[in-house]
Design a protein that fits this description.
By secondary structure, the protein is α+β, with helices and mostly antiparallel strands. It is 54% helix and 15% strand. A seven-stranded mixed sheet has the order 2-1-3-7-6-5-4, sandwiched between helices.
């Protein structure tokens, strides 16, 4: 955080470097971060620079001037609206990955841009990502395990991003199971809850489908920055993405079935209500017929002069209503 009265920082840079044979990584200052060494320059150490953008234009200027990245790649790295893609330059490889995490019941997405050079990886995000913070602290203690090739570092970060979808899917699946249980128990369910959950699944698929193509490109293209030794690890990440997308598709089908079952339950309850109202209307209609018959204003109606006419008529009406109720129960309407 900036001190009171000071301008807020336009970006936050954290960097760590692993030298061959070192037992622990070395933290770098902001001034030590810059362009990666080329193939003609010495530079066996592996460097990871992570930049959290707080001011987009200032961060874009930093990435272009100090690191020398292409403006179009910088624009894609600092935007959450661009479709992730894979692009190879002469001295680095650019790709973007969709990170995800839960904030309460809300699913939050943010794109992470990766600029992969021969011995340096620069990651860029417009939000502070808990996943990258965790991995940054973890990799500081694992220098000997990382120093073989930048592709292994890229795999670790990408694999962590993909694995972060599993807790999100578990949370969405729990919500779906609760709605499914309520529907099949006949409890009232809000249709908007089902549709909201379905939209969340569609958003997961929309985010991960382009990234599946990126991983496919990493596996099938002959990329300088991704060694053949690290490609089997990316194949594992690719399999995880396929599994997540298949789970999303199955879950969407289940939600569609739950929605159909809910609508069928609503229709059945409506039919039950209409059947009950029909029975009540039929009973009242016959009673109204009897009452209307003796409500006619004729002078010569012998029954009107009988001393027991009124209670007899009430008894007849009760009998008619009882017979109708018995009939409808035999038919299964009640």
């Amino acid at each position: 955080m900036s001190e009171p009265g000071q301008e807020p920082k336009a970006y936050e840079i954290r960097a760590v470097r692993w030298a061959p044979g070192a037992k622990q990584a070395v933290l770098l200052s902001e001034d030590e971060c810059g362009r990666a060494p080329t193939a003609e320059q010495p530079g066996d150490a592996l460097t990871w620079v992570h930049i959290t953008a707080k001011n987009i234009p200032a961060t874009a200027e930093l990435l272009q001037s100090r690191f020398g990245f292409h403006p179009l790649e910088v624009e894609d790295a600092l935007s959450n609206r661009e479709r992730p893609h894979l692009h190879e330059n002469s001295d680095h490889l650019f790709l973007a990955a969709p990170a995800v995490w839960m904030e309460g019941q809300k699913v939050v997405y943010s794109e992470v841009g990766f600029f992969v050079a021969r011995s340096q990886l620069v990651s860029v995000s417009v939000q502070a990502l808990p996943l990258l913070d965790e991995w940054f602290a973890r990799w500081q203690e694992r220098g000997p395990d990382v120093g073989r090739h930048v592709g292994f570092l890229l795999h670790s970060l990408v694999d962590g991003i993909v694995d972060s979808y599993y807790p999100v899917l578990d949370a969405l699946e729990d919500q779906g199971d609760a709605l499914e249980s309520a529907v099949f128990k006949g409890k009232p369910v809000q249709v908007k809850e089902l549709l909201r959950l379905k939209r969340r699944l569609l958003e997961v698929r929309r985010r991960l489908s382009p990234f599946r193509d990126i991983l496919n490109g990493l596996l099938r293209r002959d990329l300088t920055m991704v060694s053949a030794e690290s490609k089997p690890y990316f194949q594992d990440v690719y399999d995880h993405v396929l599994r997540i997308l298949e789970t999303v598709d199955v879950f969407r089908d289940i939600l569609a079935s739950v929605l159909d079952a809910h609508l069928a339950n609503v229709s059945n309850r409506l039919n039950d209500v209409m059947r009950l109202l029909t029975v009540i209307a039929t009973v009242l209609m016959t009673l109204g017929l009897v009452a209307g018959w003796y409500g006619m204003n004729f002078k010569h109606m012998p029954e009107l002069d009988w001393p027991w006419a009124y209670p007899a008529l009430i008894g007849v009406m009760i009998g008619i209503a009882g017979l109708e109720v018995y009939f409808f129960k035999r038919k299964g309407w009640l």
